[in-house]
Amino acid sequence: MLEKKSTRVRKDEIVLAALEVAGSEGLGALTISALAASAGMSAANIYRHFSGKDEIYSALANFLGSAVMGKAATIAGGSRKPLDKLETIFFSHITFITEHPHLGFPLFSDDFHLGHRSLAGTLALHIGNYIETITGIIAAGIAEGELKPELSPRGTALTLLGMIQVCALRGTISNASFETRPEAEKLWQNFMCLVR
C-alpha cells in the first residue's frame, strides 16, 4: 500500500513540477494537464491543492523567492567575510538560472505581469529584499575595508543583480548555445577589479 503524502508534500511536488514544465517549455506550456503529467498525478489532484493556475503561479513566485532570495539571506547571516558572501550568492544564483534557463525571462516579462498583476507585487517584494540583503553585505565590506570606501552599497548591489540578469537573458535567448558559467566568471572577476 502506498504511503499517503501530506498536503504540504503534495503542494511542493506540484510546484517543482511547475518549475520543470515552465523551465523546460516556458510559462505558456504550464497547463493543468501538462502539470499533472509532470507531477505524475491527475488534474483532479492538482485542483485539490490549488484552485487554478493563478494560485500555482503565486506558489511558483514564492518558491523562487525562497530558492534564490531566501538563500541569499541565509548566506548573509553567516560568519564569512563579505566578499566571500557576495561570491557565494552570485554563483548560487548563476547555478539556479543555469539549471532553469527558460524560467526567469517569462516571469519578468510585461505580458506575464499584465495578466497576473498580483504576482508583480510578490516578485517586487522578493527582489526588494534581495537587493537590501546584498546592499547590507556590501556596506559591511566597505566598513571592513574589503571594498572601496567610495562605493554606493545600493548601486553596487544593483550592478551585481544586473550582471545576473544579463547572464539570465543571454541564456534564455541563446537557445542553450550560450555558456552561462564561463561568462559569469568573467563578469565576477571584472566586478572584483572594480570594487576592491
Q: Explain this structure to me?
A:
The model has no long low-confidence stretch (mean pLDDT 84). The chain contains ten helices and no strands. The radius of gyration is 19 Å and the shape is elongated. It has helices at residues 7-25, 32-39, 43-49, 53-76, 82-99, 104-107, 110-115, 117-143, 153-173, 180-195.
CATH class of the largest domain: Mainly Alpha
Average pLDDT: 84
User: What is the CA–CA distance across the termini?
Assistant: 60 Å
Q: What is the approximate shape?
A: elongated
List the uncertain runs.
Answer: none
Order of helices and strands: HHHHHHHHHH
State the fourth-level CATH superfamily of the largest domain: Tetracycline Repressor, domain 2
Structural class per helix/strand content? mainly alpha
Query: β content, as a range?
Result: under 5%
User: In angstroms, what is the radius of gyration?
Assistant: 19 Å
Number of domains: 2
- And the CATH topology of the largest domain? Tetracycline Repressor, domain 2
Helix content: over 70%
Q: Which labels suit this protein?
A:
Arc Repressor Mutant, subunit A; 10 helices; elongated; mainly alpha; 196 residues; Tetracycline Repressor, domain 2; 2 domains
